[in-house]
Structure formats: structure tokens, C-alpha cells
Write a structure and sequence with these properties.
Elements: E1 6-8, H1 14-26, E2 31-32, E3 47-50, H2 58-78, E4 90-92, E5 99-101, H3 107-111, H4 115-122, E6 123-125, E7 129-133, E8 140-144, E9 159-166, E10 176-178, E11 183-185, E12 192-196, E13 203-205, E14 213-222, H5 225-229
Antiparallel strand pairs: 1-12, 2-3, 3-7, 4-5, 6-14, 7-14, 8-13, 9-12, 9-14, 10-11, 10-13
Length: 238
């Protein structure tokens, strides 16, 4: 039985990792990291740079988005119910060309050839956040998951998957530790991790002991209701 944690080594090339680390070390946009509850270094101690917020970093964001999508396609192939069980999607029948419902039975034949389009139709990436955790003090040691109500941020309830890219090796400490799966994933340069965002994959980021730790992280979210169904289809009243 899968634990739904996918690890891909070499997802990012070393030169790009070095580039983003340099941004974290030198950008004037770096800020103390926050979490759902605001700023509390006892819970999360990091230096953060939201790449998505800065127009001059558009090329970096485009590159990261393309790489992320490529590896998400593999995750969606492994876990078809991200599409089949959540949406009532239609695809062309490969034999007749007629529109048919996407099902577990026809997913490989009818769904996979259109997987990129289906992914883009139903999901989107969240803001891309680069983070630096300083040796001996940085970390996110509080157990947490990625979905919770936030004032003015309903998007947080639309998070389905988390992903993170490690930008450097950390020989000791700095692991991403998943509570229920009893897995600790060591930071390795270029390594990408994808996992569900909900409580089943409660996790924490251990303090890096042998050196600083650098990552890029974000979420895969449902598309908005308007994007999925159009403004002409309001949410029914309770």
C-alpha cells in the first residue's frame, strides 16, 4: 500500500539550486518566516522569500512551475483518483472520439493521453516560497499539516498536495519527518517531495545541525469554483 509520499532525486539541476540559494542569501525581499498563526520563531524559524510576489523573478517561477508540473504528472498517474474521484470529467473515447466519463476502467487508455490538460483544468499551483533554515536554530519543529482556515485566505482550504524542493545537502538534521508514515526524508540537493496536504501527512521540519538548509515549497490546490464551473454556476445555498 502506498504511503502517498513521492520522492524524486535530481528534479532540479544543481545550478538552479545554487541560484535560488543566492537569492535567499542576498535578496532585499527576504523576510522572517510566518505560518498560519503569524510570526512565532518557536514554531517556525526561517527566512522566507516569496518568489511569486516579485516580477523580476518571473523566469525563476516559470521554470519551477514547469518542473513541478512535469513531476506532478507522474504523481497523478500513480494516484488517478485525484482526478477520477473528485471531478466528473469527460475525455474523448480513443476509439470513437465521442465524449465519455473518465473512470478507473478507462483512465489509462482515455485519461493519460490528456493528463496535462486534465491537471491544468482542475488544479493550480500556490505561491512559490523559498526558505532558509539556519544551522542549529532554523526549522519548523511543530507538527503540522497544510490545511486550516485563515482569515481572508480560503485558498488554504483548497490545498490538496504539498511539494518541496531541497536546494542543498544537509548531512545531519533538517529532515522532513512524517508522523503517521514514520518516514524522515533527508535534504538532498535537487530532491523533490510530493505528499498529501491533509492531517494524514502531518509532518515537521527538523533543525538542520550540520549547516543551513534551503528549500522551495508550495502546494497544489483545486482550481477555484469559478474556474471549474463558471460564474453562472453559483454554490448552492445550504
Amino acid at each position: 500500500m502506498s504511503d502517498f509520499i513521492r520522492i524524486t532525486d535530481g528534479a532540479l539541476d544543481p545550478e538552479f539550486c545554487d541560484h535560488v540559494m543566492a537569492l535567499l542569501d542576498h535578496s532585499a525581499h527576504v523576510r522572517p518566516g510566518e505560518f498560519t498563526g503569524g510570526y512565532d520563531p518557536q514554531v517556525k524559524n526561517s527566512l522566507d522569500l516569496c518568489l511569486t510576489d516579485h516580477a523580476e523573478l518571473a523566469s525563476e517561477c516559470a521554470f519551477l512551475s514547469a518542473v513541478t508540473e512535469r513531476h506532478l504528472l507522474d504523481y497523478f498517474r500513480e494516484h488517478m483518483f485525484l482526478l477520477v474521484g473528485t471531478f466528473h470529467l469527460e475525455v474523448p473515447d480513443p476509439q470513437t472520439g465521442e465524449r465519455v466519463k473518465l473512470t478507473p476502467e478507462n483512465f489509462a487508455e482515455a485519461g493519460e493521453p490528456h493528463l496535462q490538460a486534465l491537471l491544468r483544468r482542475t488544479y493550480r499551483l500556490g505561491p512559490l516560497q523559498a526558505q532558509k533554515y539556519r544551522q542549529g536554530v532554523g526549522g519548523f519543529p511543530a507538527w503540522h499539516s497544510e490545511t486550516s482556515p485563515q482569515s481572508g485566505m480560503d485558498d488554504s482550504l483548497s490545498r490538496v498536495l504539498l511539494f518541496m524542493d531541497y536546494l542543498n545537502d544537509v548531512a545531519e538534521g533538517g529532515e522532513t519527518e512524517f508522523y503517521y508514515q514514520k518516514r524522515s526524508i533527508a535534504p538532498r540537493k535537487g530532491r523533490m517531495v510530493v505528499a498529501p496536504a491533509h492531517f494524514t501527512h502531518t509532518h515537521r521540519g527538523n533543525v538542520p545541525l550540520s549547516g543551513d538548509k534551503y528549500i522551495v515549497t508550495s502546494w497544489v490546490l483545486f482550481q477555484t469554483h469559478e474556474a471549474l464551473y463558471g460564474a453562472a454556476h453559483p454554490v448552492p445555498a445550504a
